[in-house]
Fold each of these.
Amino acid sequence: MARAARQDQPRSSVWLESKAHRRRGGGQPSGLDRARIIEVTVRLLDAEGLAKFSMRRLAGELNLTAMSVYWYVDTKDDLLELALDEVMGGMRLPDPGAGEDWRDQVRALAREYRTLLVRHPWVSALVGAFLNIGPNNLAFSRVVQRVVRRTGLPAKRMTSTISAVFQFVYGYGTLEGHLASRAAAGGMSVDEYFQQALSTVTSAPQAADVVKESQEIMAARGGDTVAEMLERDFEFALELLIAGIDAMVAREGAAFGGEETPGTPGTPGES
């Protein structure tokens, strides 16, 4: 009975399967492999978005029947999870053992993650939908943990520190990706879409007070293009977070009698 219960449980990740994820029976389509299927999947997701993606659409792009694709993957979810890990492999990860300042490495990781989310807007919806235990995501998670350990914060502060930085990046990159997608869907540049949206909001009576209060802030924001504005906002917010980590390192050190913890400036500590 216990064995039957385990078999009835839904598969939680394609990466937990020990098989090659191919259906039995039938011949393998010639000139096709899983890498090619994932490549085309990513291209379609980038071009058309997650909502329009289907196995039938993919098969059409590959000049195959939908059933031929199932020779390589059991379900659409399996394929999406494979595509998710594939694009995560495009991030350039710093070497936590290279002796570089942890602040620069946090900046590098945050920028790479933001770029991923903007370049592939569909990623945001999938990050929380799967376990994300593919090799590329695990490599990213390992580097993030090792870099954050180098800040000097105690282990009990690791998860909240990682969340503060990378949930901020996730939110920022997701909204930035949505902005780019909506502009493209309307056949406009991001700057054109932004001006149209601003004009619409400004003319809405219910938004007039808020817009008026925001004018000074927007004027002081700086930047001639939306890209410049977004870049300035992101970089300053990231510096706020890094400064906050520094402040918390100092506070944690004071709580332990002012002793330096491994990984703080001036010490060679390394995890």
Amino acid sequence: MPHLRHLGASGLEISPLVLGGNVFGWTADKAASFRILDRFVERGGVMIDTADVYSAWVSGHTGGESESVIGEWLRTSGKRDQVLISTKVGMLPGEGGAKLAPARIAAAAEASLQRLGIETIDLYFAHQDDEDVAQADYLAAFGTLIDAGKVRALGASNFHAMRLKSALDLAAKEGLPHFRVLQPEYNLVSRRKFEGELQDLCITHNLGVIPYYGLASGFLTGKYRSEADLSKSVRGGGMAKLLAGKGGAVLAAMDEVAAETGASLAQIALAWLAAQDGVTAPIASATSIAQLDELIGAWDVELTRDQLDRLTAAGA
């Protein structure tokens, strides 16, 4: 079983990998999703991350599909007390308005609780910032949910350093709830959104950090290495930019570390993330048991300081 990590000052403890729920009800059907969820818990996994907007981008979907699958699994498996559920508000407009309008936060939380079939969301994220709503107003709306026992801890996703700092300062000054966790985009080939000011802020304020896109949409698994590989998937277009940039150098450094450790490229990418200052655990999703087992293997990969430095330098 994995050694659990404190998720900043949230009061939550999680395994070294967070299971991404974006694929549930989309590229993983209900049966596959249930198998993956069962296996994650069996291996000692703790936190499952989803959002109300998953998977509204799919034709015929309206959002909430992932939460509904997870909710059905929680009911049929009886494993609610073995997992922590994180979900998000702010990208799916609906009752009460859009983004972080206080009425939208209230309505979206109720809808998520219903779909998930739970009484309390363990970690509730503002999925994106909303500059049209005063920060005091949306923090107060989250505070109402905490006071009602509907949310345990708060997180911010896709926030810039300046806005996250102003929210933290405001919470301290006005006695409003604090964001305790950050969910940024961060991986070996996409580092500027987190490294520097935002990373320093998280360390200073003891925010837990659970990065998404840890495998850069599959690029860091090594399956896109040439022009010919780009046609392998709908994501191929975005991979061309990475290959033309520093992606090739990063893959070469990863290949060296793979030869030294016997770990797969996906495991190396996640182990590098987990070793970065301030990072609690990366998020990754799987559509099969084999894929999940490979990802979980990352929490046993111990990279040396020299290996970490080489990987970091390759993507600088």
Amino acid sequence: MIDLRRLHVLRAVDHYGTVTAAARALHFTPSAASQQIRQLARELGVVLLEPQGRGVRLTPAARGLLAHADAIEARWEQAEHELRGGDDQPAGLLRLSGFAVAISNLLAPLAATLSARHPRLTVRIQEAEVPESFNLLFEGEVDLAIVEATPENPSRGDERFDQQPLMDDPFDLVVADKHPFAARDRVQLAECVTEDWVVPLPTCPCWPHVVAACSAAGFTPNVVHRAEEWNATAHLVAHGLGVALVPRLALIPPHLPVTRVACAGTPHRKLLTCTRNGARQRPAVAAALEELRANALTAVA
């Protein structure tokens, strides 16, 4: 019989990319993690890891084994719900994660609503950027995450996760109140060709959206300032230091002298709900997803 603990170490190596990173996430030493995989390989009579440069890579046998392991994890999620007696009332602990904007607009109201409707349910929220949310789901530390769709995410076909569209979050052009565009109901992005720009850092998931939108409008933005937080971006714009594309869900301090202007040709970022595969039927998760879908309809109206 396969040792499921050792199988989980192999899954962690696949998820984190190296034995060292997997060991760190599982609170093992690298040597202990390697030993677990060697023992699993001996039990199965196959090679699971092979050298690649200074590191290792999974063999085809390991890849085949992981396909079954992901299916086992999904079935376990289903079995856990059934073994609890089929109680359809949300109860127990529900752990949520998301990036800051998702918490402010979606998860905080969700937690308040669920706590009021379901007294037996305890909701916990953890702020996490997109890669960390996937790690938390994989490690079993959270049950439901709101993530932004990015090219670096696991593929939508990844058997470990169930990723479903939640909403599109459009970008608005943000300008200082004294800017000529502030009096307009709508502008074309191509009209911003001569503007100075405040843009996200290249590490921000929104950076590719801004670059792609400007490129599609026929220009490269004249970047004069970069900021990680939307609050910092808004302050730079308020002082007349540039214009910016900001997602509609992003909160801007109401006292700042800036105006959001609808901008034709700007992109939408896609937000997803993500669970471990097989977890969506759990009553607490199902209740949270239903409420999120309802709130998403009005969140960017």
